[in-house]
Amino acid sequence: MYTKTIEYHTIGATNRILLCLLVKPPFMMKRTQLFTFLFACFFSMAFAQDKPTFKMSDPMPTEDKLFGLSTLWKEASYNFVWFDKQLSLNWDSVYQAYIIKVLKANTVFEVNRVWTKFLEELKDGHTGVWVNQNFWNEIDQPPISLTRFEGKIVVYRMHEVLKKIVPLKSEILQINDREASEFLKNDSWQGFKGTEVKLFFRKPDGKTDTYIAKRNLNDLFKQGNFQYYPIASTTSAPKFLSKTLDKNIAFVQINTFSDSAVVDSFKRILPALKEKKALILDIRGNGGGNSEYALAIAKLITDKSYLVGPSWRTRTHHAANKAWGSFNRANAKTKDYPYKNDIEMNVWENHPGDTVSTEHEQLKLYRPVIILTSKKTFSAAEDFLIYLLGSKNIVRIGQASAGSSGQPLTINLPYDMKARICAKRDMLPDGTDYIGKGIIPDIEIPVKSIFSTDTKDLELEAALAHLKKTGIN
Fold it and tell me: Three-state SS for 59?
């Protein structure tokens, strides 16, 4: 399982960076119907490159434009596992429409935007375009975050110094003298570093104003003088954090399962955890990673003698069956005929969840555990929750997890770019579909408004109150 990270910023040419907000497509949306536009909606992970071999402003040859687009169409056609979530989507027709778009694009950056938007048509959290470090050396975005709320495009976060200039909940009416929705659909919030974006907006008090925003978010982070407003009540950094809340309750925060070091860190503090009466484990900001690392920790905190992982299915292709199906289709007198599913590329291979024994774990905690979850709990972190289903010593508190998991197929594209297509369809052990729904907590805490300036940690307070009810405080 690969990491699905939200709003994680790392600066430096030798580091992986991610500057994005997850798009919640229609079948993955929560009831608030939030649709985040920031960064034109792709999860572009940058990988280090020692020497730039091209610039994002360089023209891209026609053959590379078409080859990249066609590769994405082909690999998705054969491998993508969620076409049934969009029954009205005709993938071949979408491909044909994007041929015109990609031919109109000129620069590497413009082509990247077309490829990115093409895969966004699939509306999946584990499918998208990656870029190399060159991209982030040249491309940036304004320090203002936008979302669609109640049919309007509004500001829900910004650089703290802008909070009186472009106030929270301001409605963006125009971007660069174009209607805001049209701009974000057909253009990009991102652009070349230092370029300007003209915003015409209506403040919460009804007055309209104009502000020229500079695409300099990365530079502000590098300078170390950047602070978002409102400040989040929780954070997804560092990777691992442990502390004592009081003499009887330990608190551990694990923000990734992409690094084996978090397993080592957890095992290292286990003796200290056993001295407490309960553990609060916070994975609200855990974007996922490697499910093996998630399982390693799950085995240590469950009271069960065995764990069962997600069941899953994947598409298969049998060329000879497809050939026979084509012959049968030509001679069929009804809609049904042998090998029809092969022709329609709708043949699946099913796998039960792995059953893993925990009986030989000598370091097991054997304590009550509260797990804090949120809509930012993704992928391998959801596998973690699935493995722990049925553990009587564990209570989940917070919001439903993201409902976004699976195994991406990595694809190479021209100009050192990469893409990934979700090729593994994860389900609960009994086959129940949780994608787009999430793992529901035992005790649900209403999510704060994205406009909230309240820094209280409501989930943590609920966890402490629950433990107090059981006599642990």
Answer: strand
* Domain assignment of residue 437, yes or no: no
CA-wise closest residue to 151 among 22, 34, 21 = 34
Domain for residue 431, yes or no?
no
- Residue 8 domain boundaries: 1-231+407-425
Number of independent structural domains in the chain: 3
Q: Taking Cα atoms as reference points, which of 218, 221, 282 lies closest to residue 256?
A: 282
Q: Which of 327, 347, 346 is nearest to 337 (CA)?
A: 327
What is the distance between the alpha carbons of residues 227 and 7, in angstroms, rounded to a whole number? Answer: 13
pLDDT digits (tens, 9 = 90+) for 293-303: 999 999 999 99
Indicate if 46 and 130 belong to the same structural domain.
Answer: yes
| Cα separation, 99 vs 121, whole angstroms | 14
Do 268 and 288 belong together in one domain? yes
In angstroms, rounded to a whole number, what is the distance separating the alpha carbons of residues 446 and 52? 46
Kindly indicate the confidence band of residue 51, based on its pLDDT and cuts at 50, 70 and 90.
Answer: low
Same domain for 16 and 84, yes or no, is yes
In a domain, 380, yes or no: yes
* 380-387 vs 291-301: helix crossing angle, rounded to 10: 30
Query: What digits encode the pLDDT tens for the residues 326-335?
Result: 999 999 988 9
- The H or E element containing residue 45 is strand 45-47
pLDDT band at residue 473 under the 50/70/90 scheme: confident
Cα separations in angstroms, 12 against 7, 47, 50, 148, 187:
16, 11, 12, 31, 27
